[in-house]
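Progress note, sequence design subtask.
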């Protein structure tokens, strides 16, 4: 009997010691490991898009987990979670690159904050990220993104949504050649722009190297008498800066007005007409890209390579941003009694978008599911059934509208068109194409009619013979 009591006392003491150790500041493996963090992303209020409007590809971010409310430094890092590499295949949901990169919430329920950045730098050992925009050949590799919004989270949070901001400036020039000679071979150089800076991951501030000013060659895409010119720049106040358009036998120079602030997180767009008399008209159109904060740059009339820009209108928010991810996972029992890997439409009420948005389904309801390989809740359209999922109440008055969604099928190489779409109760054409491996999500994106206020996804017993999964529905537009 004495031996039994000794054993029980030992086990009780061991359990008490483990619980107490989770309150220590030092890393302890027993305090982590049961509550992995699931990361989703949203960039500048426009999910899953990044440099110059392109989408996430096979990309990587760096993530830090620190004590809630404390400054990011060596003493605030928890569980050695510093510069952990997480990757996405294109849908904006990030997973750990290796088992050693996986981040867990503290088991004792302590609250934590997350800091994240893009693009990932494996050699980063401090909390200062070096920025260099001198090489513009691959814009997505210099488009610095930063997230510090995921704060005061704990093991009951399950999902950490990282809201990224573009930290640099994007200058876009839409060039038209009115001489009829074409723009083939055009090179565009922006003079006197700083190329290097240090970015603090602790507070999101940039410290520019004033001695790094140089001429920066922009990216040029020519299509006949039109061209799109883009450069990602460090935030700067212009001073003696020029933009030179160099063609064979022709040179156009725009002398930018001194004192113009090109702020971080902003895109500045100009329409530029190259005229036969050697002058340049620079007219800023209404912006249509919404993954940065768009700013109108004003109108410039140039003669003989000079001129003064007129101030443009103040930036405004004229974009539609609809994103439905169907809320957090319930696999760990964090959403009431929904502890299974599926739930009916009636039982599942955790939508991202609220009133006046209304969701509905038919008498043969769609289900909400999670799978072993995909932890995000999504809609399941069972095979050989007539099923629909309808979204109503989208704000009116928008044009240039785009619909995108993540789609997977319960079979390899299934066609996109097994999932059909209606806008305002009329069928629209879904792009042709095939999905990847069984239950592997791919993103489908296409334009939808202006003024769309209702979107319906549906399958029929003949169009869907395998079963489809739908997630991350995004609708954008502009006024």
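Output:
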């Amino acid at each position: 009997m004495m031996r039994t009591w000794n054993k029980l006392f030992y086990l009780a003491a061991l359990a008490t010691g483990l619980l107490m150790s989770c309150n220590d500041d030092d890393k302890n493996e027993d305090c982590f490991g049961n509550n992995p963090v699931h990361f989703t992303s949203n960039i500048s209020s426009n999910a899953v898009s990044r440099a110059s409007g392109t989408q996430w590809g096979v990309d990587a971010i760096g993530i830090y987990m620190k004590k809630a409310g404390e400054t990011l430094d060596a003493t605030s890092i928890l569980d050695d979670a510093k510069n952990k590499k997480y990757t996405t295949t294109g849908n904006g949901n990030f997973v750990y690159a290796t088992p050693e990169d996986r981040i867990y919430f503290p088991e004792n329920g302590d609250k934590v904050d997350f800091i994240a950045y893009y693009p990932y730098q494996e050699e980063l050992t401090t909390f200062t990220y070096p920025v260099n925009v001198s090489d513009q050949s691959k814009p997505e590799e210099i488009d610095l993104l930063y997230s510090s919004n995921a704060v005061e989270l704990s093991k009951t949070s399950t999902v950490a949504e990282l809201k990224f901001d573009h930290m640099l400036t994007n200058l876009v020039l839409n060039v038209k050649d009115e001489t009829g000679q074409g723009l083939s071979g055009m090179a565009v150089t922006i003079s006197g722009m700083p190329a290097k800076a240090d970015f603090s991951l602790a507070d999101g501030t940039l410290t520019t190297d004033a001695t790094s000013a140089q001429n920066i060659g922009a990216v040029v895409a020519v299509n006949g008498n039109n061209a799109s010119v883009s450069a990602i720049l460090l935030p700067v106040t212009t001073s003696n800066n020029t933009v030179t358009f160099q063609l064979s036998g022709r040179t156009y120079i725009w002398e930018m007005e001194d004192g113009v602030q090109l702020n971080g997180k902003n895109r500045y767009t100009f329409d530029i007409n190259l005229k036969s008399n050697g002058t340049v008209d620079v007219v800023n159109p209404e912006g249509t890209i919404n993954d940065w904060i768009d700013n109108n740059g004003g109108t410039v009339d140039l003669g003989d390579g000079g001129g003064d820009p007129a101030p443009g209108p103040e930036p405004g928010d004229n974009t539609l941003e609809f994103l439905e991810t169907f809320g957090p996972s319930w696999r760990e029992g964090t959403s009431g009694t929904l502890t299974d890997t599926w739930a009916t439409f009636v039982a599942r009420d955790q939508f991202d978008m609220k009133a006046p948005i209304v969701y509905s389904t038919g008498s043969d309801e769609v289900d909400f599911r999670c799978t072993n390989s995909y932890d995000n809740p999504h809609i399941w359209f069972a095979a050989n059934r007539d099923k629909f999922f309808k979204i109503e109440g989208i704000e009116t008055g928008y044009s240039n509208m785009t619909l995108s969604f993540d789609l997977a099928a319960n079979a390899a190489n299934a066609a996109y068109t097994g999932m059909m779409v209606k806008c305002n109760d009329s069928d629209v054409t879904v792009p042709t194409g095939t999905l990847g491996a069984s239950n592997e999500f791919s993103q489908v994106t296409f334009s939808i009619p202006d003024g769309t206020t209702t979107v319906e996804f549906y399958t029929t017993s003949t169009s869907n013979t395998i079963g489809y999964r739908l997630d991350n529905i995004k609708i954008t537009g502009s006024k």
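The radius of gyration is 26 Å. Work on this subtask will continue into the next period as scheduled.
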